[in-house]
Amino acid sequence: MITVYSPEHRLRDARTELHRGELVKPFECPERAQYVIDRVRSEHLGQVIAPHTFGRAPLLRVHGAGYVEFLASAWVEWLATGARCEAIPDCWPARRMTQRVPVAIAGKLGYYAMACETSISAGTWEAACISADVALTGAQQLSSGARGAFALCRPPGHHAGHDLYGGYCFLNNAAIAAQYLRDRGAVRVAILDVDYHHGNGTQDIFYDRGDVLVASLHGDPATTFPYFSGYADETGSGTGAGFNMNLPLPGGTGFGKWTEALQAALGQISSFGADALVVSLGVDTFVGDPISAFTLGSPDFGTYGALIGQLGLPTLFVMEGGYAVAEIGLNVVNVLCGFEGQT
After folding, report:
1. Active site residue 159
2. Cis preceding linkage at 155, omega within 30
3. Catalytic pick from 9, 158, 159, 198?
4. Where in the sequence is the domain holding 215, given as residue range(s)?
5. Domains in the chain: how many in total?
6. Is residue 116 part of a domain?
7. Per-residue CA distances from 61 to 49, 57, 58, 150, 264 (Å)
8. Which residue among 21, 145, 153, 229 sits deepest, i.e. has the most Cβ atoms within 10 Å of its Cβ?
């Protein structure tokens, strides 16, 4: 399996995250990708290639032009105010307030942010673009006939919606890749999100479309970030009605119950008749993850990788969450080896 990777992910090295009322070093850190790529190489998973550059056009297929321009200019605008810290919003357009984009960067941050735990720092935009290029290069491998590819994206993407960021995410890599596959001839594409947290951004982008099925198993939003997305009754709208599947699970869920939900999602994907599959690969379902609450063990990741492989679809794995840094490489590569039949 080819892995697409760029060391330029390190351009995103934020120092600030608001966690339980404190400013801490972000859980989403450069070391995550380093542990994964080290494991990919030590296990001889396959060739590691650099991403191609695709420009803004593929981003604009799923994200609003105003939002993309905001991301591109936010850090420069923030520094121009005299700010000496990373950019964090402090005001949002809440219920019954006007939904109008402000001129001031402080207002723009609130307009486009879904949460305030994710700061914008030097290099954020550049790293986000490279991360999207990593996903697009992986999708290009599938379009060229590959059975599987791994896009080692960082920063992650599944919380980024059509015009919002948060949850460590700025551009929705999985959505961008899925749209790329559609634009290159795939009639139907499925996205399977196995991250512990609901991919609200992916749901947002495809919610009213019937050509991209989104299936997600995740922590119950009644008790789990992002709280306001991911309930079972969110099934799509308009032509997308019935093409969004959420399988929320309670904290403490182990591999048995989690696998039942996975099998339900895989069944839906099989019935959908997808030409290609994009997997939002978050391994924060691991029992040792510091900000999650499922209890999968490292061998379980290989088992479910094999189950995904049994679909027989061209599959792109796109890196999302996973914050037990010491085990992240092991868990990710276990999924990929399972898919390849190497468990």
Report:
1. yes
2. yes
3. 159
4. 2-62+122-339
5. 1
6. no
7. 25, 7, 5, 22, 30
8. 153
Whole-angstrom distance, CA of residue 281 vs CA of residue 270 = 19
On the question of pLDDT at 323 being above 70, the answer is: yes
State the residue for tokens 């997808």.
Answer: 274
* 72 assigned to some structural domain: no
Q: Are 289 and 196 in contact (CB under 8 A)?
A: yes
Share of the chain above pLDDT 90, in %: 99
Separation of alpha carbons 139 and 185, rounded Å: 12
**pLDDT tens digits, 93-126:** 999 999 999 999 999 999 999 999 999 999 999 9
pLDDT given at position 343: 63
Handedness of CA 23, 78, 198, 314 (dihedral sign): negative
- Cα–Cα distance, 247 to 89 (Å, whole number): 31
147, 244, 260, 306, 308 from 312: Cα distances, Å: 8, 21, 19, 10, 8
Three-state DSSP state, 140: helix
When pLDDT is cut at 50, 70 and 90, the band that residue 239 belongs to is very high
Contacts for 124 with CB less than 8 Å, ≥ 6 apart: 11, 12, 14, 71, 74, 75, 155, 170
Contact 343, 303 (CB under 8 A): yes
Phi-psi region of 273 (alpha: psi -120 to 50; beta: other; left: phi over 0): left
Q: Is the pLDDT of residue 92 over 80?
A: yes
Q: For the whole model, what pTM was predicted? A: 0.98
- Segment (H or E) for 247: strand 244-249
What pLDDT band is residue 339 in, cutting at 50, 70 and 90? very high
DSSP state of 120: B
97 found inside a domain? no
Terminal C-alpha separation, the chain: 14
Q: What is the CATH number of the domain that holds 238?
A: 3.40.800.20
Q: Two tokens at 293?
A: 């609450």
pLDDT, averaged across the chain? 97
Closest CA to 135 of 151, 157, 154, 156: 151
